[in-house]
């Protein structure tokens, strides 16, 4: 039994089914990357999980049927960070935005202040606290949205291209923070992306194409299926390609994503 169990999900907008008997189980405390080219169904699946598209019948979250009755309860255990976060901002300052959901849950003001301070330090938000979240850059908005999701310590964090506007160095720092929450607080992470570089942080990679799972495996061995990934137009990360080539020359015995380790092997 997973923290999310999708069984035989079928969904269509109009005539054709986007998902037809789709099943996926997500283990507690894992980090799954769900990748796929445009049109593969990633956004549709996120929207179904967020309750924005209604199709409850085939989904269990935290062992409860995902239905209208439990929607609010279940959603308080799940944090969502979308690619365009301003659609979900509700306050005039970043500080209020961080506190907003906690206030709605009637958390004590002292606890709210402590949590807002913690998030401010963790994400270096000091200079943004008084600013209007709508006036921030795209990447800054995404960082605020991530902080707003993590402040609630959800049991499941769903990222939908959540850091696509953050520059690459900062993105790595943010993914490291999420990894700490994932390993220390056992928050389950579902990351939807077209960028396979981000899969490096996950335990499992699921590749969708036209609403079907075409690759599903543990990281990093799943990259043995790189041909399938290329065929559907996904870009395979540089270190995967390099590892594959070095394996051919017996320099590496398996895929290795740690560039420093690979370089030192090359010098041996
Ligand atoms: P992805 O996020 O992987 O790009 P989507 O979930 O956005 O994939 O799209 C999956 C399929 O559903 C595509 O064929 C897309 O054209 C279709 N689709 C998405 N949104 C709508 C909609 N609102 N109405 C009709 N078809 C849609």
Notes on the structure:
This protein has 268 residues and is an alpha/beta fold. The chain has one domain: P-loop containing nucleotide triphosphate hydrolases (Rossmann fold). The chain is built from nine helices and ten strands. It has helices spanning 42-49, 71-75, 94-104, 109-122, 138-150, 168-184, 226-231, 238-248, 259-267; strands at 4-12, 17-26, 31-35, 59-61, 64-65, 78-81, 156-160, 188-193, 204-209, 212-218. The strands form two sheets. Strands 6-7-8-3-9-10 form a six-stranded mixed β-sheet, with helices on both faces. A four-stranded antiparallel β-sheet has the order 2-1-4-5, with no helix packed on it. Strand 1 and strand 2 (17-26) form a beta hairpin. Helix 3 (94-104) crosses helix 4. Bound molecules: adenosine-5'-diphosphate. Adenosine-5'-diphosphate binds at residues 13-14, 18, 36, 38-44.
Short description:
With 268 residues, this protein is an alpha/beta fold. It contains nine helices and ten strands.
List key phrases describing it.
6-stranded mixed sheet, 21% strand, binds adenosine-5'-diphosphate, 9 helices, globular, alpha/beta, Rossmann fold, 268 residues, 10 strands
Blueprint (SSEs and pairs):
Layout: E1 4-12, E2 17-26, E3 31-35, H1 42-49, E4 59-61, E5 64-65, H2 71-75, E6 78-81, H3 94-104, H4 109-122, H5 138-150, E7 156-160, H6 168-184, E8 188-193, E9 204-209, E10 212-218, H7 226-231, H8 238-248, H9 259-267
Parallel strand pairs: 3-8, 3-9, 6-7, 7-8
Antiparallel strand pairs: 1-2, 1-4, 4-5, 9-10
Bound molecules: adenosine-5'-diphosphate.
């Amino acid at each position: 039994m997973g923290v999310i169990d999708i069984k035989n999900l079928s969904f269509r907008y109009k005539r054709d089914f986007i998902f037809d008997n789709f099943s996926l189980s997500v283990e507690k405390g894992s980090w799954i990357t769900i990748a796929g080219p445009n049109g593969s169904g990633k956004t549709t699946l996120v929207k179904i999980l967020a309750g924005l598209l209604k199709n409850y019948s085939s989904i269990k979250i935290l062992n409860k049927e995902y239905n209208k009755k439990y929607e609010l309860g279940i959603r308080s255990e799940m944090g969502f960070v979308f690619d365009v976060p301003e659609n979900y901002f509700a306050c005039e300052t970043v500080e209020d935005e961080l506190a907003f959901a906690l206030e709605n849950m009637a958390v004590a003001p002292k606890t709210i202040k402590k949590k807002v301070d913690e998030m401010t330090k963790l994400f270096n938000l000091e200079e943004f606290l008084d600013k209007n979240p709508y006036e921030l850059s795209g990447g800054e908005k995404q960082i605020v949205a991530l902080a707003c999701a993590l402040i609630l310590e959800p049991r499941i964090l769903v990222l939908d291209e959540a850091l696509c506007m953050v520059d690459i160095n900062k993105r790595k720092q943010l993914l490291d923070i999420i990894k700490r929450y994932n390993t220390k607080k056992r928050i389950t992470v579902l990351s939807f992306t077209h960028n396979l570089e981000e899969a490096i942080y996950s335990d499992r990679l699921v590749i969708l194409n036209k609403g079907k799972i075409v690759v599903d495996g543990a990281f990093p061995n799943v990259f043995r299926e790189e041909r399938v990934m290329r065929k559907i137009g996904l870009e395979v990360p540089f270190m995967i390609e390099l590892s594959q080539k070095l394996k051919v020359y017996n320099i590496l015995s398996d895929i290795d994503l740690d560039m420093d380790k690979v370089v030192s092997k090359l010098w041996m």
